[in-house]
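Q: Could you fold this chain for me?
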Amino acid sequence: MANSLYITATEARSGKSAIALGMMRLVTGRVRRPALFRPIINSVDPARPDHDIELLMKTFHLDMPYEETYACSLEDALELINSGKSDVLMDKILVAFKKLEAKYDFILCEGTDFMGKDSTFEYNLNGDIAANLGASVLLVTSAQGRTVSEVQSAVLSGIDLMKAKAVRTVAVIANMSTLSDTESKELIARITPNGVEEAEQPVEGFADTRPPLFFVIPAIPALGQPSMQDVANWLHAKVLHGQEHLDNLISGNLIAAMQVGNFLDYLQDGHLVITPGDRADIILATLTARLSYAYPDIAGILLTGGLPLAPTMERLVQGWASLPLTILSVDTDTFTTVSNLNRLHGRIAASDEGKVHLALGHFARHVDTRVLGDRLGEASKRMTPRMFEFQIMEQARKHRMHIVLPEGEEERILRAAEILLQRDVADLTLLGDADKIGAKIRALGLDMEKVRIIQPELAPDFEDYVKTYFELRQKKGISMDQARDRMKDATYFGTMMVYKGAADGLVSGSVNTTAHTVRPALEFIKTKPGASIVSSVFFMCLKDRVLTFGDCAINPDPTPEQLADIAVTSAETSRIFGLEPRVAMLSYSTGKSGSGADVDKVAEATRIAHEKAPDLLLTGPIQYDAAIDADTARTKMPGDPVAGRATVFIFPDLNTGNNTYKAVQRAAGAIAIGPVLQGMRKPVNDLSRGCLIPDIVNTVAITAVQAQAEKGLA
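A: Sure. Below is the predicted structure, expressed as C-alpha cells.
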C-alpha cells in the first residue's frame, strides 16, 4: 500500500500552493513513483485545469494522466453532502484514491481551496476525507497579520480537530508569518509544551506516536505579488510589447493622470503604471525612468481605453533594442480597469520559474526537510533522476560553497544564477564587464542582490594574480606581460580565484570551448594526490535509475594504468553523489570469451584497479549487456557481484564512450548531466555551448558538492 500525506489549510489564503510545491519537491526526492491527488477541485472542466494540479504536474513533470489527479468538483461534492449522500462522496473519492494507490509509491494529497463561505465546514470536510483515506495530515495555517496568541490558538485547535477525527497530524506550518524573529521564538516556546512536541493520547491506528513537527515560514512579499502575466490573464489584456518580461512582479498600482514632472516623483520599485493609451508623455517618461539608475525599476505599463499607441510612439518602441518592460493594453476605462485589478491576488504559475524557485528555496530554508522526510516513510533504495537532482541540491545547500562563473554576461548564466541564489545552492561570483552585467540584470528583471560581480582587470587582486601566474608558468616561457594578458581573460582569472582559495569551484563553457575552460585548470590547479589523470563522467539519468559513464569527454585512448585510475576515480565520484558504485570495465569480450590487444588492455586495467581499491566492487572485461542486464549476466558471468547490477560503466576509449553516452541519451530519452571533471585538486566543470538553464543549475550544484568533498564536508 502506498504511503500518503494530506495537505490541508485551516482557512483561505494560507499559501497552501507554496507548501504543496515544497512537499512535492521533498517527495520526488525520496520515492520512485509519486502521485498527486486532489479529492475535490473547483472545476472539472478540462479547458480550465486546476491551478495547483497544473502547477505541480508541470513543475515536477509528473507522469500521470490529469483526469486521475482528482475525484470530483466542489459543486458536485456540495450537492451530495446537502442531499445527505456524504457516503457516496467518500466512496467516489476512495475509488479514485485506490486506483492511484495500486500504481504509485507515494500519494501527495491536497485539500480544498476554501472558495466557499464557511471555512470551518471545509476544514471539517478535509479532516473527514483524510480520515477515510487513512492519510496523515500536514496542517497549514496563516500567520499573516496575527499575534503570537492568535497563531497559537489556530495551531492547537487545528491539531485538536484532527485528533478528534482520529487523523494523525505529522506537521503544522504557520505560513506567511509577519511575526518578528523574537515573536516566532516565543510562539515555538509556547506551542512546544502544549501538545506539538509533547505527545498526548496517540491516534488510534497509527504506529507513529511522535508529536507533530512545527515550522514557522516568514511571509515573502514576492510570492503574493501578481506578475505581469497574471495581470494579462486576469484582464484578458493584449501584450503589445515586452513579452519576455511578463514574469516581472507587481508591488502596487500607480494611476498616472498628472503631468510628467509630478508623476515621476511617485514611482516605486515594482509599480504597474496605469494610464490611457493616448498619454504618450507618460509612456515615454516611464520607459526612460526604467532605464535610468536614478529611478526605481517599474514592473510594466498598462494602457486603458483600448487606445492604440500613436504611430510615432509605436515606431519609437519598436526601434528600442531591448525594451526593458512589458506594455499591456485593455479596452476598459481606467476606473473599471483598476476596480478589476483590485480583485487580483498573486499566484504561483507553473510558467513563472522565478516564483517557483523562490517558493522552493524559501520552503527549504525554513522547513527541516530531512526530519520531515523521515516522517513520510522509508525512502526508496533505488536512485531515480528526480531523487538524484533533489539530493544534489540538498547536499549543496548543507555547506554552501562559493562558485565562480566566468561567463557573467551570458543570459543563460544570469538566469541560472538567479535560480541558484533563490534556492541557496551556492554563493556566486560573476566575471565580466560590470556595467554590461548590471545592465543585463536590470533589463532581464532579475533579483541578483546577493551576487558578486568582478571585472578582472579592475579587481584589487589582479596584480597579485598576475604575479602568481607568472611564478607558476615562467619555466614554460611565460613573460610578465603575457601573464597580465592571461589574467584579463575571465576564465584564467576565475581559475586563479579557485587556485588561491577565493572561490571553491568554477563552471564555464556555455560560450567558451571545452579547451578554453579546462586549459587554465590543467596549467596550475593540476591533479590531486593519487590521481594520474584528469578524466570525466556523465551521470546518465534514465527513467528509473541513474548510471555513471566514464570517460566520455577527455581522454582519447587511456593506458591500462590511466583506465584503472579513471575507474577508481569514477567510483569515488559516484559515491560522493549518493550512488552505490559497482564498476564494469567494458570491452567487446566478457571474461575470457575473447582475446586481442583491446581486451588485454581492459583486463590489465581491471587488475590494476583491484590493486588500487581492493574493496571496490569491480569486474572486467565485461560487455555492456552483461553488465546491465541480469538475465544476460546469469548466462555470461554467473555469480559475479557486478554483472547485471553495474552502476558505473568505464569505457575503454573516448570513441566508444562518447558515442555510447549519446546513443543512450537519444535512444532511451535519458538526461545526461556532465561532463563532470574529476581528478583535479579543486573542482572545475565544463558546460556544453548548447546547454540549457537547468543544465547550468545542475552543474553548479555538482561543482559545489565536489568542493564540499575536497574540503571533507561531503
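A (continued): The radius of gyration is 29 Å.
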